[in-house]
Write a structure and sequence with these properties.
- This protein has 356 residues and is of the alpha/beta class.
- It is 37% helix and 14% strand.
- The protein has a seven-stranded mixed β-sheet, with helices on both faces.
- The longest helix has 24 residues.
- It binds pyridoxal-5'-phosphate.
């Protein structure tokens, strides 16, 4: 540790991203919930020489064109949306802006939330999930500060119905609820419609998963105009040009291609259901996923850690979390049908080995 590093950061444990192997060809990569499909052909078309030439200029700090399209998509006013360099950046602004009375979230959820509460030195309350891994709504009654839920949750994939989100909003109208909808497009309902009724709601989403643009880094926030203005106060105090020119174009092009979006997300949903049925028939237990991954536990005596290692030896990367409550699960991103058939084949082989 150098003498220059601020004391308050010396004990930070940063987020551990899923592995991005240098030699990707070697692996079927199902460990970071990326899309197996290329961005929309309209995104390719938008990345022309003119767009590259425009890199000479700063990107539009108001992200106007993109936000106009996004507001249209959600049916809200343009002052109710904001763009970020990935949703992670917007989560950062939201935690910094609204977390001063502490932040409550499930004990099992997206790992970045506790990194952010550490970074900004916010008081954190981790609320245990129900035994079936669903979010325990009643446990948030009386909790002060901001409530943060990934919906569907990560890494469980379980979707909390909007009625329950509404209950959370009603528990205390002076308490903010942030819903992180990174996986909402794989078969569940967005909370954006609740913004008409509730002023204590922020919805955050991303183009990384369902829009096939993880490497472009594009996220968004939707909330009432006052909250968005406050998030913008932080953005303009930290990184006014937070979304680059090519990414803004890519985002608008991806939004415009509704058919491609629907085809990709539908195909992921179908493949997910196929994989769930196959894994169940091999004795796996799993949560009911509404996301682009399955969270599954192999049948004893095969441990999740050994299953993870054996998949890796066979060129398949999935995610295993060394966290006691969920260490008997692995999280497998849904790839193409062909990739998933390979996973199922290798899994069968691993199970047969174990039976010997
Ligand atoms: C993937 C993910 C994100 C991060 O998305 P980016 O837009 O790529 O930063 C946010 N929240 C959850 C729950 C995620 O799984």
């Amino acid at each position: 540790m150098s003498q220059f590093f601020a004391k308050r950061f010396q004990t930070l444990t940063p987020y551990t991203p899923g592995e991005q192997p240098a030699d990707m060809e070697q692996f079927i990569k199902l460990n970071t919930n990326e899309s197996p499909y290329a961005p929309s052909p309209q995104v390719f078309a938008a990345m022309d020489r003119g767009a590259i030439g425009d890199l000479r200029l700063y990107s539009d700090p108001t992200c106007q064109q993109f936000l106009k399209a996004l507001a249209g998509e959600f049916g809200v006013d343009e002052n109710m949306v904001m763009a970020g360099s990935g949703s992670d950046e917007l989560l950062g602004y939201a935690f910094a802006a609204f977390g001063q009375n502490g932040v409550a979230f499930p004990n099992i959820t997206y790992g970045f939330y506790s990194v952010l509460t550490d970074l900004f030195a916010l008081e954190v309350q981790k609320v245990p999930l129900n035994c079936d891994c669903s979010v325990k709504i009643s446990a948030y009654e009386g909790k002060k500060g901001m409530v943060v839920l990934a919906n569907p949750n990560a890494p469980t994939g379980i979707y909390l119905p909007l009625d329950d989100v509404e209950t959370l909003l009603q528990q205390d109208e002076n308490r903010l609820v942030l819903i992180d909808e990174a996986y909402v497009d794989f078969g569940s309902e967005s909370a954006v419609c609740l913004l008409k009724t509730y002023k204590n709601l922020v919805v955050i989403g991303t183009f990384s998963k369902s829009r096939n643009l993880a490497g472009a880094r594009l996220g968004y926030a939707v909330a009432n105009a006052e909250l968005i203005a406050e998030l913008n106060t932080l953005k303009f105090s930290f990184d006014p040009y937070n979304v680059n020119t090519l990414t803004l174009l890519a985002g608008a092009a991806a939004l415009a291609d509704k058919r491609y979006f629907t085809a990709c997300t539908q195909s992921i949903i179908e493949t997910r259901e196929f994989v769930c049925n196959e894994l169940k028939s091999m004795g796996f237990e799993m949560t009911k996923s509404a996301a682009n991954f399955v969270f599954c536990a192999p049948l004893s005596p095969l441990s999740a850690q050994v299953y993870y290692k054996k998949l890796r030896e066979n060129g398949i990367l999935v995610r295993w979390f060394d966290t006691p409550e969920i260490s008997h699960y692995v999280r497998i991103t849904i790839g193409t049908k062909k990739q998933m058939e390979e996973v199922l084949g290798v899994t069968k082989m691993i199970l047969d080995e174990k039976a010997l």
